[in-house]
């Protein structure tokens, strides 16, 4: 049975691990993990660049993301928690990319970031596997509320919760 939100830690774990274990895809796995841990809207996640998460002048990962939200225009500082840092270190090598390179580049047109449509397809496929009902467009609040209901602390990293 499909549920509207993620209701328990087992379902959350299935959701997080789909693109790690079932259908391995580093970009998609990173998209899911960053989405769950930052509670940013998909348009803000897709707009992230290497320069947003890595200090090239110091050769080190940043501790916070500074994001100007596209929908609200507000600027937020979001802590890059251990789970996000681990996923970045697992999949990314900033020394091979320019600061302006997209974190989630399109596989068809590398100079563009992944489209919202494709991102929603990625999330919807994962959600179906985990047993979560998704209606597109998927509101960011669905993940924020779901994480809080399960007590998954990383979701509390978002400044607006």
Describe it for me?
Helices cover 45% and strands 9% of the residues. The chain is built from seven helices and four strands. The strands form two sheets. The protein has a two-stranded antiparallel sheet.
In brief:
By secondary structure, this protein is mainly α. The protein has seven helices and four strands; from the N terminus they run H-H-H-H-E-E-E-E-H-H-H.
Which secondary structure elements does this structure contain, and how are they paired or packed?
Layout: H1 9-22, H2 26-38, H3 42-46, H4 50-53, E1 54-55, E2 60-61, E3 64-68, E4 75-79, H5 82-91, H6 116-130, H7 140-150
Antiparallel strand pairs: 1-2, 3-4
Structural features:
globular, mainly alpha, two-stranded antiparallel ribbon, 7 helices, 4 strands, 161 residues
The percent range for helix content is: 40-55%
Mean residue pLDDT: 83
β-strand amount: 5-15%
Tell me the number of helical segments per DSSP (H or I, 4 or more residues long). Answer: 7
Low-confidence blocks of residues: 148-161
- Main sheet strand line-up: 1-2
The count of β-strands is 4
**Through-space gap between termini:** 29 Å
């Amino acid at each position: 049975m499909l549920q509207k939100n993620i209701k328990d830690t087992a379902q959350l774990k299935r959701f997080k691990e789909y693109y790690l274990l079932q259908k391995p895809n580093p970009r998609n796995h990173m998209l899911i993990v960053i989405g769950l841990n930052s509670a940013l809207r998909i348009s803000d996640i897709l707009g992230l660049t290497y320069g947003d998460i890595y200090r090239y002048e110091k050769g080190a990962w940043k501790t916070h993301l500074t994001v100007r939200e596209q929908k609200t225009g507000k600027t937020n500082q979001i802590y890059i928690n251990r789970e996000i840092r681990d996923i970045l270190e697992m999949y990314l090598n900033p020394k091979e990319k320019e600061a302006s390179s997209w974190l989630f580049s399109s596989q068809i047109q590398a100079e563009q970031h992944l489209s919202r449509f494709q991102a929603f397809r990625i999330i919807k496929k994962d959600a179906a596997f985990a047993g979560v009902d998704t209606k597109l467009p998927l509101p960011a609040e669905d993940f924020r509320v779901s994480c809080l209901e399960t007590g998954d602390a990383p979701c509390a990293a978002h400044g607006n919760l």
